[in-house]
Structures are given as C-alpha cells and as structure tokens.
Amino acid sequence: MAKVLWYYQQSGEEHGPVSSADLRRMAARGKLDPTDLVRRESMEEWVEAHRLRGVEFSQTAPSSKKPATKTTKAKKEKPAKANRADIPASLESGQPAGIIRRWFAFVIDSTIDTILSLGGFTVGLMISGVSLLDMIASKVDVDKLNSGSEEVIQAELEKMGTVLMENLDALLIPSVLLILLPFLYHLVFEWSRAGGTIGKMMCGIKIVKTDGDHAGFFRILWRILMKFLITFGVLSGLGALTALFTSLKQSTHDLLSGTMVIRK
C-alpha cells in the first residue's frame, strides 16, 4: 500500500505533507495541538487532530505556536463529521466501505458460495461412490409423494429421513466438502494481498486491520469463524447491523476480530 501523507494547519498556514508516524511524533512532542486542523490526501475536509485515533498529545510541552493573525481559505473549511474523523492515523487506504458496496459484494459471494457448496457436495458423492437418488428411491415411493394424501406424504418423508440417517457415513465426505469449499474460498482470498473475495474485489473493497495494515492469517480465520457463528447462530444475520452505527462501519465479526472493510 502507498504511504499515507497528511497536511496540517498552524497559525493560519498550511504545512506538509508528513507521514502518519511524523504526525504522531509531532503530537507527542507538543508540536501539534489537539485543535490543529489536519487532513489526509484522500480527505476533502479538515478535521481537528484530537479526532484521530492512535495519536497521543503531549500533556506537558507548551505550544510554541503564535496566535493566528490571519485566516486562510482552508481555515474556513468546516471540520468533517465524527464518523469521517474517527479513523486511525496510520490508515493507508480509503474510507470505510459503505453498506451498499458490502451488500453487492455479499450477493456476489453468496452466489459463488452456493456454486462451490453444490459442486463440493456432488464431487463428494462421486468420491463416496454413492447416488443419493438411488438411496432414496430404494426406500421411498416417489409416486406417493406426488399424489398421495397428507398422511402418506408424511410417511414417505419420514422414510427419506431414515434413509439419510442410515447413510450418514456415506454422506460424510459430501457434507464436509459442502462446508469446506466456501470456507477455503473466503479464507484464501481474504488472507491474500487482495484482502477480499471476488465479490469484494469486484466492488472495490477489502479487509484490513483497524490500523490499516494487512490482516494476518489467524485474524482472518477468526473473522470468518465469528461471521459464520453470528450469521447462522444466535444473531441470525443481525450482527451486520452494527455497521450502521459504528464510526468505522464495522459489523459484529469485524469488531470481534479487529478488522474493518475499506474502499480501495
């Protein structure tokens, strides 16, 4: 990722560019006040420095700056809203990704997940040498399912369930591949330097740590596990709603894994 550069205003004059590390050092040495205005190259508006996460200001060093005698055009610009400002100072990419981009990426990836799951299950049946239809047809009267009464249909469905339970060992490999292929798809692509699945890449977004660095293997692994548990577990998909209310637009699994989704 390209190095992020910052600009700052003091005594009505604009200075910079400086790196994120330089900005933090200036704050720690008392050369940057919490009320000084700063902006990143990709930011259209100025924000007060105290809104930046990861920047600690000197508590003892006096400010050496003189009061402003004139106001530049840039000084008149209003600070950005809080959700634009509460971003890590070391973040070296774009702004947090919006809900619409993430939703389109989700739709694309869900389609890919379905294809992988069905393909994996089919390949698993071929590996096991088992025909699911043959197993069911040997015990279940398909004609009764189509034209029988409600009681007859219920009885045939119970037979179908019995067949599946009796052949769980034969369905082990197909069931594992049903889950494993989509899981590996997300793990490999999100851990890669691209930082996202095909859906995310098509929508111009990626996953990073909250400080903007590349998310490592175990962090991505934990994120995927949390996403699975939250989506299909207790919250039944409601965990994604936290992205509407957090400054970095993080879903619950992002909050638990220390990650965020940003625009490239």
> What share of residues is helical?
40-55%
The number of helical runs is 10
Shape descriptor reads: elongated
Structural classification: alpha+beta
Gyration radius (Cα, Å) is 27 Å
Q: pLDDT below 50 for ≥5 consecutive residues: which ranges?
A: 61-86, 89-93
Query: Helix-strand pattern, N to C?
Result: EEHEEHHHHHHHEHHE
Number of β-strand runs: 6
> How far apart are the termini?
10 Å
Could you characterize the architecture of this molecule?
With 264 residues, the chain is of the alpha+beta class. The protein folds into 2 domains: 5-85, no CATH class; 99-130 and 167-263, no CATH class. Helix content is 45%, strand content 11%. It is built from 10 helices and 6 strands. It has helices spanning 20-28, 82-85, 99-128, 132-137, 142-147, 150-166, 172-191, 198-202, 217-232, 252-257; strands spanning 5-10, 13-19, 37-40, 47-48, 205-209, 259-263. A 4-stranded antiparallel beta sheet has the order 2-1-3-4. Strand 3 (37-40) and strand 4 form a beta hairpin. Helix 7 packs across helix 9. The longest helix is centred in the middle third of the chain and has 30 residues, at 99-128. It is elongated, with a radius of gyration of 27 Å.
